[in-house]
Amino acid sequence: MEVLIRDNPDVGCLLGAKMFASVIREKPHAVLGLATGRTPLRLYQELIRMHRDEGLDFSRVTTFNLDEYVGLPATHDQSYRYFMRENFFRHINIDQTRTHVPDGTAADLHTECRGYEQKIADAGGIDLQLLGLGRNGHIGFNEPTGSLRSRTWIKILSEQTLKDNSAVFGSIEKMPKHALTMGIGTILDAKRILLLAFGPAKVRAVEHMIEGPLAAICPGSALQQHPRATVILDENSAAGLHYADHYRWIDQHKFDWQRTK
Length: 261
Prior knowledge:
Elements: E1 2-6, H1 9-26, E2 31-34, H2 41-54, E3 62-65, E4 67-69, H3 80-87, E5 99-100, H4 109-122, E6 128-131, E7 153-156, H5 159-165, E8 178-181, H6 184-188, E9 193-197, H7 203-211, E10 229-234, H8 244-252
Parallel strand pairs: 1-10, 2-3, 2-6, 3-5, 6-9, 9-10
Antiparallel strand pairs: 4-8, 7-8
Helix pairs in contact: 1-2
């Protein structure tokens, strides 16, 4: 696991955007795994700027989002399809038919999950997967104690996740209690992974993910098994790491070809 600590979230997101742009330029038909929420917004804004100012071309790119709430149509302003359209897709030259988000309104959710896995496989697998990290260590909507080999499936959201995400719905009672999400096994199949985690609320989850044991109680710890996972933190989220100075030392003494691009 490559751990990169930056001064603040803005600098971290700009670095992450460069990583995505590098993949797209090297492979114009890249398959990207995307995430929602506040954390990646600055990264998407920078990719939009690169498209407008530098000609970064998304016309052949295919995307797969991590998850979607069960029961929310694509037109709902809290659906992840709506989030992606408003905050990213409509600002770039991507072919909308190449953008995929699980359908939380599907009549048969089991079939939708199996079909989503097949679509990823048919596209050749994900080249770069973007992740955030929940305060309880979840990635996607894979909550603590779930399988570390799971595939895309229906998940019951934990009470912590409901509390963390309910503000935008007005109350916990109004928030969906289920979601469709890529499983941890699906995520680990990506050729490369980038996880962003910022702010003091993520200190404990970051510590357990990076320096704790590989354990289902912290789903993010599964990234310890991935051959090419990069974690970008800010000083606040990295505050609980025992080996923070070591990660900085490693970062400072890499060969040029080893640096995140």
